[in-house]
Design goal:
The structure is a homodimer. By secondary structure, chain A is an alpha/beta fold. Chain A has three domains: 11-56, 434 Repressor (Amino-terminal Domain); 65-148, Rossmann fold (3-Layer(aba) Sandwich), CATH 3.40.50; 152-293, Rossmann fold (3-Layer(aba) Sandwich). In chain A, 44% of the residues lie in helices and 13% in strands. Chain A has twelve helices and ten strands. Chain A has a four-stranded parallel β-sheet with strand order 2-1-3-4. Chain A has a four-stranded parallel β-sheet with strand order 6-5-7-8, sandwiched between helices. In chain A, helix 1 packs across helix 3 (39-51) and helix 8 packs across helix 9 (187-203). Chains A and B meet through helix 4, helix 5, strand 2, helix 6 and helix 11 of A and helix 4, helix 5, strand 2, helix 6 and helix 11 of B. The structure holds a DNA duplex.
DNA sequence: CGAGGTTACTCACACGTGTGAGTGAAACGT
DNA sequence: ACGTTTCACTCACACGTGTGAGTAACCTCG
């Protein structure tokens, strides 16, 4: 490899070294069908380009083509779960399938989207959770389409919430409790899951589940709050025998709460989470949970991006791959006497 | 807000609307000290710019200035922990402190760094784990400095490994076991932690800890493997009474393994993890662990970036904030008879 | 009243690409 | 032999910005 006095090589450097014009270099390296070149020239330019380790300057290319090839995923500063990583992986592949690159940006108190849009001109902005009004406004002003992943995720959440109920019903449980959260950040997820669980219960002819909402993170105070609620719900002639939890963290909270008031899981109460966290299979008892599959989501977003950015056909409502029950120890079949 | 026939507004649009030259717009909006403008003109240009929602085109700006303002964090496709999210947050702030933006890129089978470098011309490439040789070579060829976060992280890992041993020693434990992993992906972390733990044990005059290495993920087979090793180590006249685990996941594996051979945690064996996963405080028993603090790492990376990119003074070896023991139920004081 | 300085701007170039239009030479068809 | 097509390439513009150099009008001062 030869460097041209420290600077990175440009197309002009390649052209000079190969003894052709800069246009020739551009045409050959971009493989146009309209222009023809002799095999020798093509080979020579390719060789020189490799030799100089020529890489086109992304900014210049973006400026000329009018599109940056970058899709930005803006994520608010929310604790990242393994599930989220899976989603990012699926989105990365989806964006790559449209010949673009997905970059992820963490929106933080000191790092507003506004600041970063000065450095990055994405072709589209992806949001999982609703972004601050200010930020979406800025994107719209810069005529950057804001695409939300919310609706496919919502469908997954609905499927997951329903699946929790359906699985417990299949095990013979009729009186269910639902442990949801009131945290604003994850509100979109929790409402979808809750609503779907309620609907599923109604569809199955079950009595309306008892809902308890926890504010704040899954810590000691959450455990005592859940324990208090649980004591109430498991008393009486028709006690709750199973609990659908917002996610595995709160399922673990529920397990701890049940223990603290002398209930055995799963003998006295079955508990099912959502997310299939890596630790879920290592808890005592191991946690029955719902595992998401984002391949359908990825395919949907790919089609949507093609539609919005490349003028492709309108994205069809791809049937997203259904979440899946991972059966473990925290749920048990209820033997009706 | 007024749009100029669909297109996003350029500096020329602002200039025309304000009745000044394009240079004037550029000077005013960038606030140069060399040029002076009448207050009226400044106000008018500012107003028009706001009215047209003018945002400078990032690619054009990058092309002209010769620097993109983007620092790229390339992460291999490794399960994301909450800890990793904390690191990304710290790095995001560090990069922002140098007036640049940190974008994260997931390196995947279908999404090679090479492909994305065509779309993104970062000013620097950050790596946590060593990138594929091919990728670093490409970055170097494009004269993009590759900056590794490995060394500050290594110091944290060393501190954490030592802390595990020191904490257990302070509780009266002398015969320690170490549960490490042989997974190549996380090899840098595991070797640092292991080496530091060994050194710490030697410094404290403890017998050399017994090391068991697990291959593969923290699943059922890992539990049986650890159980087998644990049975051996806890036998005999001088049994192991405490275990330092690679992370919280493997600490949970160790707890399950101990249970499976009839050992009580922490009565028969103390177990300490690393990472302080959200679920760690919800396990039964709750997990004693080491929590990382990345503020020092962030400061160090900020100085390093300033040095490499802005020619600032050489980065000093900032004393990174020490990790911290989170004492919970899985460890107990050993009463010597 | 003219030299020199300040104020408020504008001109014009460069950054590195991609691409439609053009061009000279060779090959081809009649 | 001559018009026409094909081949292999080059010219020149445009994308939108930042900035050093220039410039006309106005003010200051001896």
């Amino acid at each position: 490899m030869v460097t041209v006095n420290g600077r990175r090589a440009t197309a002009a450097d390649v052209a000079a070294a190969a003894g052709v014009s800069r246009s020739t270099v551009s045409y050959i390296l971009n493989g146009s069908d309209q222009q023809t070149f002799s095999p020798q020239t093509v080979a020579r330019v390719r060789a020189v380009a490799a030799d100089l380790a020529y890489t086109p300057h992304a900014a210049a290319r973006a400026l000329r083509k009018g599109q940056s090839g970058i899709v930005l995923l803006a994520v608010p500063d929310v604790p990242a779960s393994a599930n989220f990583a899976k989603l990012v992986a699926a989105l990365t592949d989806a964006v790559r399938a449209t010949n673009r690159s997905l970059a992820t940006l963490a929106i933080r108190p000191g790092n507003r989207l506004l600041d970063s849009l000065r450095d990055i001109s994405p072709q589209a902005l992806l949001e999982v959770l609703p972004l601050p009004e200010e930020d979406t406004a800025a994107a719209v002003a810069a005529s950057i389409p804001v695409i939300s992943v919310a609706s496919p995720i919502e469908r997954l959440d609905e499927a997951a919430g329903a699946l929790q109920v359906q699985h417990l019903a299949a095990l013979g449980h009729r009186r269910l409790g639902i442990l949801t959260v009131s945290d604003l950040q994850v509100r979109p997820f929790s409402t979808s899951r809750l609503a779907a669980a309620r609907t599923a219960a109604a569809d199955l002819g079950l009595p309306a589940p008892d809902v308890m909402a926890v504010a704040g993170p899954p810590d000691e105070s959450a455990i005592t709050a859940v324990a208090r609620a649980l004591r109430r719900l498991t008393k009486g002639p028709d006690p709750v025998t199973a609990l659908c939890c917002f996610n595995d963290l709160f399922a673990a909270v529920a397990v701890a709460a049940a223990r603290s008031i002398g209930l055995d899981v799963p003998r006295d109460i079955s508990i099912v989470g959502i997310d299939d966290e890596p630790l879920a299979g290592l808890l005592g008892p191991t946690l029955t949970t719902i595992r998401y599959d984002y391949t359908g989501t990825g395919a949907h977003m790919r089609d949507l991006l093609r539609h919005v950015l490349d003028g492709g056909p309108a994205a069809t409502e791809t049937s997203s791959d259904a979440p899946q029950v991972i059966e473990r120890e925290s749920t048990r079949r209820l033997d009706h006497e």
